[in-house]
Every structure is written in C-alpha cells, then in structure tokens.
Amino acid sequence: MSLKENLKAESQREKAKLKNMSGRDRIWYIWEYYKLHMLAAAAILFILYIIGNVIYNSTFENRLSYMVINNSSMEPTDFETFNQEFKDYMGYGKKDRVTAEGSVYIRHDGNSSELEYASMAKISALVASNSLDMMIMDQANADHYNQLDAFADLEQLLPEDLWQQVKDYAYYAPTESGEEIACAIDINHTCFPERTGVSITPCYLGVVKSSNQIDTVIEWIRFLLNSQ
Predict the structure, then answer these.
(1) pTM (2 d.p.)
(2) Is 121 exposed, middle or buried (0-12, 13-18, 19+ CB in 10 A)?
(3) Do residues 187 and 195 make contact, with C-beta atoms less than 8 angstroms apart?
(4) What is the pLDDT, as a whole number, of residue 10?
C-alpha cells in the first residue's frame, strides 16, 4: 500500500473513532493524541505572526516621538488628534508615524517607585538609541535631564526667527558642567495643553540632543506656535 493510501486509511479510521465518541471523550482524545501537533502548529503560527509583524512595522517611517512626563490632569488625554493634524501639516502619509507617550510619572525626591525607575530606564534607553525626540515635562524633570546633558541648547538649535518667538518663554538651567543653557521652553501659553488635555505647570518642552529628527522637531514647534 502506498503512503497516500496509508494516510487515507488512517484518516478514515480516526474519523470513525471520533464519530462514535461522546463530545467530552472526543475532546479528550484529540487533546491527548494530537496536543504536540497542535502546540507545534500554534508555535509556528506565532513565529509567523512575529515575523509578519516585524516586516509590516518595517514599512513605517518614524517621523517624531515625544514623551509627556508628570501630567496631572484627571481628564483623558488625546495626542492622536493633535499628532494627526501635525502629520497633515507636514504632508505625511499613513505609513509615517508621530507618536506620543503620556502615562509617565517620575519623581526625583528619593521616593521613586519601581515603576518610576522602570520609566527612567526606558527614557535612558530611548535617548541612547536616538529614538526619543522631545520631552514635555515639569521643572523637576527638566532640571534632572538637563543635568544629564540630555537637552540641546535651544538658543543655539532653533532658527533665529523661531528663537525670537520663544525666547521669552525659555527656561535656563545648568548642565552637568554647570553651564546654563536654554534647555526648554514653557508651552503652557500654546494650544497644546487644551488640545491634548495635558496639565503640567510649568509645561516645559525640551529637545533631546541625540534626536535624529531635529528638522521635524523644529517644524513641530512652528506648528505648535501657529495653531489655534
């Protein structure tokens, strides 16, 4: 008997067995005799899903990423609408990503929780991998990360016309070497808090020095200042 005939005969015998079993026995039989096959199939499907997801995500372009730290608002935040308006302003398509994370809370008073330490580690990893472009935060975090030399000097970074628009809102703080730089600008006077639901006072925006998207950051600030 050929292999094909053997497989066909085996299939018919299995069908006959299952047909004569109760529902509970059928489930037990299938699990007992085919669980390794099912687990192997599930593992293969999971691996294929991971590979497909990686390939799919690789077709996207990360245009801008920012993190909002210590938002004290009790109302829901909405970054998607604001980010989509910026994407429209820039002429970006569906495969262009502008992302924001707004559920981060970090203290620097010696009472940080494990979750806060995990958030600090995440920020450090993002900065080190050039994957974080801006931080919107309170003064304590502006001071902390500026002392770690995380922020660019906005007086030097921004084009002159843009600097003239924001210089009255600039926040100067010392770096690790003690040099005071314009490490952030207060954006509470802009539409950002109202449009996104963010409540931070003062609400400082710092540009991460290691960002690969400086030109996009500059356009985001222009968009912010011109939005109503």
Answers:
(1) 0.75
(2) exposed
(3) no
(4) 57
Beta bridge partners of 97: 62
The pLDDT of residue 7 is 46
Q: What is the per-residue pLDDT across 94-134, written as a single tens digit (0 to 9) for each?
A: 899 999 999 899 998 888 899 999 999 999 999 999 999 99
Task: Calculate the average pLDDT of the chain.
Answer: 86
The C-alpha angle 222, 87, 98, rounded to 5 degrees, equals 95
Closest CA to 92 of 177, 9, 213: 213
H/E stretch holding 180 reads strand 180-186
CA distance 212 to 61: 13
The distance in angstroms from the start CA to the end CA of the chain is 80
Residue 154: closest CA among 135, 138, 130: 135
Around Cβ 166, how many Cβ atoms within 10 Å?
21
Residue 117 half-sphere exposure toward CB, CA atoms < 13 A = 5
Q: Which residues, at least 6 apart from 104, have a Cβ–Cβ distance to it below 8 Å?
A: 67, 68, 69, 70, 119, 123
Beta bridge partners of 101: 67
Phi, psi dihedral angles at 125 (to 5 degrees): -65, -40
Which range has the worst mean pLDDT, 1-10, 34-43, 138-147, 179-188? 1-10
Question: Do you find a cis peptide bond into 202, omega within 30 degrees of 0?
Answer: yes
Query: Does residue 115 sit in helix, strand or coil?
Result: helix
Alpha-carbon span 213 to 197, nearest angstrom: 25
| Encoded tokens for 190 | 């802009």
